[in-house]
Amino acid sequence: MTDGKEHIEPAVVRAWVTETVRTLGEARARIDSANVFPVADADTGTNMLLTVTEGARAVSALPDGEPTDTVLVAFARGALLGARGNSGVILSEFLRGFAGAVTFADQPVGSLRVATRFEAAARASYAAVAVPVPGTILTAASGGASAARAAADAGADLTGVVVAARDGSHRAMLRSPSELEVLSRAGVLDAGAYGLVLVLDALCRVLGADGLDGTGLEAEAVARGGSPSALPGAADHAADPADPTDLVDPVVSVVDGTMGAMATSTTDAAVDRGAGPGPAVGPGDPAPAVAHADGGTASVGLDGEFEVMFVVEAVVGEPLRTVFPETDGLDLADALRTALQEAGDSVVVVGDGVWQAHVHTDDPGRAVAAARQVVAGRAGLRQVCVRHLATQVAARGVHVGLPDALPHPDQQVPAHGVVTITSAPGLVPDLARSGAVVLLAADRAPEPEEVLRVAVDTSARLVTVLPGSDVAAAAARAAALLVEPGAGDLQAVEVLDAPTDLHVVAALAAAQLVEEDQAEAMRAALADVRAVQVAADGSLVRPALEELLRPDDEVLTIMPGRRVDPLVIDVVVGIARQRVPGIEVVVLDSGRDHADLELGAE
After folding, report:
1. Whole-prediction pTM value?
2. Number of neighbouring beta carbons within 10 Å of residue 65
3. Structure confidence by residue, pLDDT tens digits, 319-372
4. Cβ-contact 431, 502 below 8 angstroms
5. Cβ–Cβ under 8 Å, residues 231 and 249
6. Where are the strands (E) in 457-601, listed by range?
7. Left (φ > 0), alpha (ψ -120 to 50) or beta: where does 497 sit?
8. Which residues fall within 8 angstroms of residue 484, CB to CB, at 6 or more apart?
9. For the chain, first and last CA: distance in Å?
10. Which residues share a beta bridge with 129?
11. What is the pLDDT of residues 485-542, one digit of tens each?
C-alpha cells in the first residue's frame, strides 16, 4: 500500500522531458513510416518530436528550484505553442491535462494523484477533438488512464501506477488495428498511439522501472501467434478491452529499450475516405457521437487538401465568448471546434488562455475567417501555418499506391524547402500547392519565432524564405539567426529579396519550371519583377501602367482588392494590351478587403 507521501520530484520531471525527446528522436522515422491516419503524410513521429522539443525548450528556460507543477505546466505550454499536426496537438493537450490536474502546487504527487493526472490527461485529449475516433492516440490515453486508476485503487505505489498506465496504453495500441479499419488494411499500429506509449515508457525508465525491452506484453503476444511484420485478419478480431491478453498481432519489434520497426505502407490507397469510425470512449465517459449534425459520419481518410494550424491569443482583460448565437455559452475552444467543423475535418483545439487549433480543409481562407468570427475583436490569430498535404507527402518521398510495400527506403529529409509569407488570404491555396509552407500574417506582422516554426515545418535542411514585405523580411532574417540544433532537420535559412506578394508569386512560378537549382531560378525571376500598388481610379491606373510596362514584358499580373469593380480590371487589361500587344495577363484574388490594384510586370 502507498502511504500517499511519495511524489515526483521536479528533477524527475526534467529527466522525463529529456528522455522523452531522446526516445521520440530515436523512434521518429519508425513512427513516420507507420502514419496512415488521418492522412498518410508520414510525419506523425516528426510532429510529436517537434512538439515535445518545444516543451523541453520551455522547461530549460525555467530557473532551478521550481516545483513539480511549474515544470509540468511549462512542458505542456511549450508543447502547446510548438505543437505540430493532429498528433502533436493532442499530445500537447494530454500533457496539459496531466499538468493541470493538481489544485495546489505544493501538494505531493502520490500514486492516487498520478492516477488522477492520467485520467485528466485522457479526458482533456478526448475533449480537444471534435470527432474522436477509436484505435488512435485517444484510445491509448484512455487505456492508460483506466489501468492507472485500477493500479492505484489496488494499492500500487507511484512507479507501479505509471507502469500500469504505460502498459494500459500499450495494450490499447496493440488493439488499434481491430478498432480502425484503415490500420488493419495497411498492416500497422496507430502511429500517434505508438508515440504516446513511448512518452509514458520514458517516464517509467526515469522512475527506475523496466522499459519495453522485448519482454512482457510483446513477447506474450508474439507467443500467441503474433507477427512482427503483418496483421492478417486483424479487422475480423473483436478484442476484449477487459482482457489484457486479448491482443491482436502486433506490428512491432523492440530494440534498445524502445519499440522498434513497424511494417507499414504509407499510401493514399490505404486510406478510405468513406470509412466510418466506431465509438470512442474516454475514461469514465459515455461514447461520444461520431456523426456530424447533418447525419453523416466523420471521414477517417484524406479529409482535406490543406492542413491549417494557428494560435489564438486573448486580448488582456477581455473575456472571450462566442459571437455565434447558436453556440452562445460555449467557451472559446468549443466555439472554435464548432466553427472549424463547418470548414473541414480533423479538428482539434487545445489550450486555456492561449489556444492552438488544427484543421484539415479544402478552403484555408474559410477556416481562418471562421476562427476570426469566433474571436471577433477580443483575440488575435498568429502563427497561421498552411501546408498542402499531398505536396508535403511527395516532398518526403513517401510511396503512393503500393499498399503492400514496406517503408519507403528513400523516404528522407528534403534537401530544400520554401516558406512564403503573405497577408493575402486569397493567395494561400496556390502558394501552398506550389510546395511552399505558407505563413499567413493574419492579424499582425510575423515574429521571428513564427518564421522559424514554418521553416522547420518544411522538414527540409535548407529553407528559402520569400517574405512578401519588408517587415516580414526583417523577421525572416532574424529567424535565420535562431537556427540551432533541435530545430528539426533545419540547418540554414536563406531570405530572398521578395518585397511584395507579386514577387513571391513570380518566384514560385519560376521554381516550378526547373527540377534543380530552384533557389537560383527564384533569384533570377525576382530580378525581373517590377511591382506597384495603386488605387483603382482611372486617372491613376493609366499613368501607373504606362510607367510600369516595358515593350519586352511578357506577363502582367493583376491582384485586385475585393472592393475593386471588375470593370476596372477589364480596363487595365485593355490598356496593357494596347501598350504591349500579346502580353499575357494573369488575375489573382488577393482576398484583401481594399479597393487597390497591385500590378506586377516581368
Report:
1. 0.76
2. 7
3. 444 443 444 445 888 899 999 989 988 888 888 888 999 999 999 999 999 999
4. no
5. yes
6. 462-466, 492-495, 530-535, 555-560, 584-587, 596-601
7. beta
8. none
9. 78
10. 348
11. 766 788 999 999 999 999 999 999 999 888 788 889 999 999 999 999 988 877 788 8
Q: Which residues contact 367 (CB under 8 A, 6 or more apart)?
A: 308, 340, 343, 344, 359, 361
Q: Tell me which residue of 479, 486, 439, 484 sits closest to 458, measured CA to CA.
A: 439
Which position has the grid cell 520497426?
261
Render 457-473 in DSSP notation, one character per residue: HTT-SEEEEE-SSHHHH
Cβ contacts of residue 300 below 8 Å, gap of 6+?
A: 37, 38, 133, 180, 181, 182, 271, 272, 275, 276, 277
Cell numbers for 9, please give them.
520530484
Around Cβ 512, how many Cβ atoms within 10 Å?
12
Query: What is the rounded distance in angstroms from the CA atom of residue 558 to the CA atom of residue 533?
Result: 10
DSSP 171-198: HHHHHHHHH-HHHHHHT---HHHHHHHH
Give the span between the Cα atoms of 137 and 169, in whole angstroms. 9
As a residue count, the chain comes to 602
Phi and psi angles of residue 47, each rounded to the nearest 5 degrees, phi first: -65, -45
Phi/psi for 128 (5° steps) reads -75, -20
Contact by Cβ (8 Å): 483, 491? yes
SS3 41: coil
Do 381 and 426 form a contact (C-beta atoms < 8 A)? no
Whether a cis peptide bond, with omega within 30° of 0, leads into 134 is: no
